[in-house]
Write a structure and sequence with these properties.
heterodimer; A: Uridine Diphospho-n-acetylenolpyruvylglucosamine Reductase, domain 2; Uridine Diphospho-n-acetylenolpyruvylglucosamine Reductase, domain 3; 2 domains; five-stranded antiparallel beta sheet; 14 strands; globular; B: alpha+beta; Ubiquitin-like (UB roll); DNA polymerase, domain 1; five-stranded mixed beta sheet
Chain lengths: ~270, ~150
């Protein structure tokens, strides 16, 4: 499969990347390309210019700063999964990164690319939302609650580049995913995090966009036990139905994954 | 069009490629290294796995221009002095293939996983092979071969 023709550009700095974008006619940024390139091959995307930001050194880092863990947007999934810094600060985040796609995909795919794409079944958006992260771009800071706006839609403006994500260290957290048996996308995935200011539960792979499950959050705030969710009903109305799972089955799986995440949190050594 | 310079199996190549040329097409059609296969062409099957700067990647899911300045290892570059790489030898010894179509990708993935995990157990090998499909063997002999290779490497 060949994508439509485009011009490839490789800026050395963020500033140069922005300039190239502004002078291009219909540009897209590419980092790992693990979603964009398949889309281009199927001609679902046909940018006239492809601006490769994966070589910009300033975008690749993992840094603990007090109760925040800042990860550069260009950091590859495999590097997050294998990072002792991430494992020490937020083990559930390292686990999540190691569950994305397959090893070859994880060697290319990046954190910034995943959240900018905001696939409804991607893993990282659940972590960003549950860990109350702040997304930094080349223009501003965006709180997680305002970042994901719809199916493949985010608060990013044309030409804006995610530069880092600062995750808030939780007291404890866990991510549980029911992977699609073919694609390994979440079907669904539930990230539960206990913070000093409360419980956050983010669900991906169920609806058209990652979201916070308020009914699960308020139940778990009362009593942080898997059994607490036995009597909670997860509404299926807004959920996706496809050949892999009906909306009702997804609703069932959201509850089961949430319960397993809570079980895992309570038993984790990291407390 | 772009001019790229890549090292493939230890040899430097400078070539002019259309920007939309996929790395796998560059390897197969420009360099005639046809050991790297195109299976699904949708990033799922892993028949096209090569190493980019020492790490397994799907060569159908990146453009050749993205590899400008990089080092690539394909299945053709594994053997040394006419002697099979230990992973290749283990696949032969344990009959880790039937039709052979997935084999180059399986072996490149196996070499990558053994570089990260010296003594993988069966569960780990199965997890690491999630991105490589074999439609003949049922994977059993592939797993046996990789375990045997981990002892030989």
């Amino acid at each position: 499969m060949y994508p439509a023709s485009f011009r490839y550009l490789r800026p050395a700095t963020l500033g140069e990347a922005g300039q190239l974008f502004n002078s291009a006619s219909d540009a897209r940024y590419v980092a790992g390309g693990q979603s964009l390139i398949p889309a281009m091959k199927q001609r679902l995307a046909s940018p006239s210019e492809l601006i490769d930001i994966s070589r910009i050194p300033a975008l690749s880092f993992i840094r603990r700063d007090g109760d925040l863990l800042a990860i550069g947007a260009g950091t590859r999934h495999a590097d997050v999964a294998a990072s002792a810094e991430v494992e020490g600060a937020i083990p559930a985040l390292a686990t999540l990164a190691g569950l994305i796609g397959d090893p070859a995909v994880r060697h290319r795919g990046t954190l910034g690319g995943s959240i900018a794409n905001n696939d409804p079944a991607a893993d990282y958006p659940a972590a960003v939302l549950a860990l109350d992260a702040v997304v930094t771009t080349n223009r501003r800071n965006i709180p997680a609650d305002l970042f994901f706006t719809g199916m493949f839609e985010t608060a990013l403006e044309p030409g804006e580049i995610v530069t880092q994500v600062a995750f808030r260290l939780p007291r404890r957290a866990a991510y549980m995913k029911f992977p699609n048996p073919a694609s390994r996308y979440a079907m669904p995935g539930v990230f539960v995090a206990e913070h000093a200011h409360g419980i956050r539960v983010a669900v991906t792979g169920a609806a058209s966009c990652v979201y916070r499950a308020s009914e699960l959050e308020s139940a778990l705030a009362e009593r942080l036990m898997p059994e607490t969710l036995d009597t909670v009903t997860v509404a299926a109305e807004e959920f996706t139905s496809d050949l892999f799972a009906s909306a009702e089955y997804r609703a069932h799986l959201v509850k089961v994954m949430a319960q397993r995440a809570v079980t895992s949190m309570l038993s984790s050594r990291h407390g | 069009m772009s001019t790229i310079s890549v090292e493939v199996n230890g040899e430097r190549h400078t070539a002019e490629v259309e920007d939309r040329t996929l790395l796998v097409h560059f390897l197969r059609d420009h360099l005639r290294l046809t050991g790297t296969h195109i299976g699904c062409d949708t990033s799922q099957c892993g028949a096209c796995v090569v190493h980019l700067n020492g790490k397994a990647v799907k060569s159908c899911t990146m453009f050749a221009v993205q590899a400008d300045g990089d080092s690539i290892l394909t299945i053709e570059g594994l053997s040394r002095d006419g002697k099979l790489h230990p992973v290749q030898a283990a696949f032969q010894e344990h009959h880790g293939l039937q039709c052979g179509f997935c084999t180059p990708g399986m072996i490149m993935t196996a070499v990558d996983l053994l570089a990260r995990h010296a003594q993988p157990d069966e569960a780990l090998i199965r997890r690491e092979l999630e991105g490589n499909f074999c439609r003949c063997t049922g994977y059993l002999n592939i797993i046996k071969a990789i375990q045997a290779a981990s002892r030989a490497v």
